[in-house]
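Lecture 7 notes. Example A: sequence first, then its structure tokens.
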Amino acid sequence: HPEIGSTGMMLKLGLLVILACALAAQSADIQFLDLATEAACLDGSPYAFYFNPNASSTRWSISIQGGGWSYNETLSYERSKTTLGTSTLWHNTSGCECMYVLENGANDETCNCIYMPYCDGASFSGYRADPWPVNSPTAPANATLHFRGQRNLLATLEYALQNHGLADATELVITGGSAGGLSTFLHADQISAWMHAINPKTRVAAAPVVGYFLDHGNYADSSFTYPSWMNYIYSMQNISGALHPACLQAFPNDPYKCFIAPHMVQYVTTPFFMFNSRFDLWQLDNIEQVPCMQDKTYNCSDQERNAITQYGDDFVSQFAIVPTLKGNGAFITSCICHGCPWSDVSLSNLTAMQAFGRWYSGESTTNIYIDHRGPNGDDTMKWSQCAKW
């Protein structure tokens, strides 16, 4: 599948999720971390985050960028030459969205906001102290990579706690889109533990956006699958130290499964509200690998349409654990999207953002919203973000 290895595709994906989530984003300044912290991008450049303070608020948001994954050394080396692998190309300012919602569903931007750009290729999960050889015919003979995603996360928290007042937060919402959504699932408990060790009264919640990627085969029934790619990343980047200990105990023979949301979500104790599509466009393209989604014609045969419909049913099956987990919420749309129109799609007379706001405020006892219709609401949805099929 050529787009799996396409750096341009990864960049477009990262930008798509940022644009979809940044409804009224603040402008945040860059803060580089010392290399002594071991925080670094794939190319070894120092990691940095963006911070927008708000002296009048004790609310905080941490927003984690998405942008796919780098599934092997060759793709990691390619990524290291882009904004998803080096900080040398980053701008001095960036948008930063507070994940708090007003009654009408609009964002409430009165918070201290940290935006974490993505440059490690493994959802802030890898750690190797020493550089890793590329050993690829497309890279120089001595080319190496730095797998420091876990340190990027923890060093950012350390700096914000010590220098920006994060220790005084009364509320913290962790969010992220796509690979950043998976990061939110993976690391919410770790971040929560850090916060509560310093301030046990801080309310911590998570809002992963399009981060629920299925453990699933593909349309061609080949071995070229998303789970196999994530398994390789698990070994290549040495990510076991970042995964949930209870999940690792549950999968002693297949620990990489704890890097895939449906397997690890039941172990997350931080309250979360997830946003996702049953017919996630990226997943139909890259996990199910439906030809009409891959070639971007969206002119699907009956067989391809059946596969898409089945994927939606499989999503519901792998999602079934979530409603049994007390205190959480979800909005699952049928729009074929990845950068979804969350301020527009609605169920039970609530947009996704309104549903999240009601969950967070405790106004509603019904917090699981699932659109069980076929793709695009049985073809009634006309938003541009909903792909044809």
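Example B, a different protein, same format:
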Amino acid sequence: PDISNDDRTLDKLINDVNVTVDSFNMWLTPYTPGGEHWIEIQLPVPRFLAGVFVWNYNKSVSDVGRGVRRLEVLLDDRIISPEGGFNLRAAPGVSNYDFRQWLDLGAVLSGPTAESAHEASSGLMNVHPHYQVPSLPRCLSVTLRILSTCGDHHYVGLTGLELVTSGGNAVPLTSADIEATPASINVLPNVSGDTRTADKLIDGINETLDDRHMWLAPYAVGHVNTITVLLHRPITLVGVRLWNYNKTPTRGANAFQLLLDQHVVFEGSLRPSLASSSAALHSPFQVDAADTNQVVAFEPAFAKLHASRLVGVVKGDSLAVINDGALLEGSVRTSRGRAQARPTTMVAGRRY
């Protein structure tokens, strides 16, 4: 159709308004499968470039499918991207956190990355109307959708989260790689400076009752809390480790969904932490909890290694949901109860 005066022009890519859902600050162009679509940037003088930050198309949740899935980068007409191109993650469709992605040109120059188009695909297959299970779980984002708590109607929290690759190694993450919605209890009126923020989930201190190493956020029955890990290159996962909220077990996450690249791959429940809330209150910085991580496994050997801690096992052709050693069927549970005034909560001697 004849379209004129559309605001989504190329100059919007460099106007420094990047974390937005306002399409006035975005670029959009017709797409032809198999065609060439390119953007050329001319630098006035030679520069050393380490990489490129990219914010994918983010107009709305329903429009993020218009974003770029794969692209090549050329410097002075020389291809400087992995074989098959860089894989971009879809934008979230919201603007409450910075979803930028770093394309590391230096890593490409330093050696092969083995990110071929075949390897980088997520390999999602439909095996159940409610799940898309990855045959090779390789992804650019991991999202935890918390649907209910272990009994508390006002707060929900976790102590730790690890993404595990082959060899049992945790994916190294920084505070810029993890976001939560709501972010923390600092979003509440008259609350500021509370240390229980999402970055504490990846600080590596998980077997603890020190709530300065935990995340806590407001919770309301019927609402969903999310934690999202943003990766800058595709990562193959063998499992996800989760440590529930140790300070007050009833505030731990219960029913949850796990999403890879915005596809639901698992739905189940976490057990409450085994840590004693009374011990946490009386000795929050000296008493360590037992090793209480719980595991969602994508690979048989990893599942066998953590058999006593399994929340669930996800395979390419089946899904087993395990809770307290028992196979579950049916949908997840949701906390229910009448709305009440939100109680105060305390960290490191402070009360709100």
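Note on Example B: Residues 105-110 form the longest helix (6 residues). The chain is about 5% helix and 30% strand.
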